[in-house]
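User: My advisor, Dr. K., asked me to get a structural model of this assembly before our group meeting. I'm new to this, so sorry if the format is off. These are the inputs:
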Amino acid sequence: MTYAQRMIETNPSGAAVDASTLVECIEACFDCAQSCTACADACLTEGDVQMLGRCIRLCLDCADICDATGKILFRQTAFDAEMARAALEACARACRICGDECEQHAEHMEHCRVCAEACRRCESACNDVLTAV
Amino acid sequence: MTYAQRMIETNPSGAAVDASTLVECIEACFDCAQSCTACADACLTEGDVQMLGRCIRLCLDCADICDATGKILFRQTAFDAEMARAALEACARACRICGDECEQHAEHMEHCRVCAEACRRCESACNDVLTAV
Amino acid sequence: MTYAQRMIETNPSGAAVDASTLVECIEACFDCAQSCTACADACLTEGDVQMLGRCIRLCLDCADICDATGKILFRQTAFDAEMARAALEACARACRICGDECEQHAEHMEHCRVCAEACRRCESACNDVLTAV
Amino acid sequence: MTYAQRMIETNPSGAAVDASTLVECIEACFDCAQSCTACADACLTEGDVQMLGRCIRLCLDCADICDATGKILFRQTAFDAEMARAALEACARACRICGDECEQHAEHMEHCRVCAEACRRCESACNDVLTAV
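Assistant: The format is fine. Below is the predicted structure of the whole assembly, which you can bring to the meeting.
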């Protein structure tokens, strides 16, 4: 069991939406935040940093939003559906934009391929929770 | 001059939207993030923490989104209007929700009054940039 | 394979210290940041929030340091051993302090038990990287 | 009055160390976090990004630690001197390392000059609180 699963399970409030849908989204948010942080750094080392300016920038943006969204979803005290929706919609959009960018470099750079995958999974997980909220 | 002003002015990309509107929003985001962080903590010390659970939680959420939005707006490299909009819309909504909550406690707790003010200013500044983008 | 493993493996810089030691520490930092974020929230819902003020506060602090340290360790471009050490030492100390506090509540609250475990693992992983750097 | 001043003043716990020393450090931490975030971005747009890889990376690291430290110092509930010290020592070191790097580019890039100044001020403010704690 992951820490996200265990922490949601042991929270006295109980999960505000279906626990497995929620946990999948929390993990997808944090995995995406981490992948984007690492992808921005990996791009810095690549030869043509100029070309990757947009990728680095969008990865940093996406990491910030995913991280905020993961934390917001993790909190079960006095769950507020409108706050969750605000974060989830921003996160799904950020992941789409960043995923589209990383995908363009996926053939030549493995880190962009993995990061694009993390973005797609996070976008999809956010949309699943949006449907459930 | 504030650091936000100086950093936007010295950025070789130039500001993507009107510089003073942008700087006001960046500062409002970070001021709100800080106020929410401090208000959540101040609520913890108040007598009736149970009653303040919702306030603490929304302050933590709002701080996370404001902080992410402030960073995203600060980046001028390869500015992406859709990414900015995603963050700004989430931030304006988060500030409205958190500001409404803090306002309910503003009469009895000074920190909630100051925090509500920071939320209102940030919501308004986000909407100004949304119009300009 | 986790995202942390895949992102370290695909980074063109190569890991600055033994990759498996590094990945274990990055994952321990982010797991601990998440557990502390969730434990602070779970404590808010518990009956005696007053008694848990210190636990909530230390969990928020520890989450902030673990998150910063995880990101710093994830960056491989122009790795700086002194910067890594500064973060790792702070993180090991924060995890010890927070782990000691959570452990005191571990018998009565499962989320504190899981969080204490995450803190211990992270403290130990930070010390392992400190030895390797 | 800044928001940091107002929030410390209205906190029912009272400041754990001399309020003006504390507020100066909180503001220096957040100003430095913002300057480093913006400097990393500005470096991305400069011609020779390769040369600036180290500067970008250290700015991102320093921003993460300054942000965590600012939040930790802002919390007055159940203040823990050892937790504060762990963060402050890491922050002072991070600011020294990042300030030294930015200073090397200060002559040619205004954003690095401003960022170096923010780092020096933050390092000094952290040392002042370390003396007072």
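One thing worth pointing out at the meeting: Chain D touches chain C at residues 53-54, 56-58, 60-61, 64-65, 67-68, 71-72, 75, 77-78, 80, 82-83, 86-87, 89-90, 93-94, 97 (CB under 8 Å).

User: Perfect, thanks a lot.
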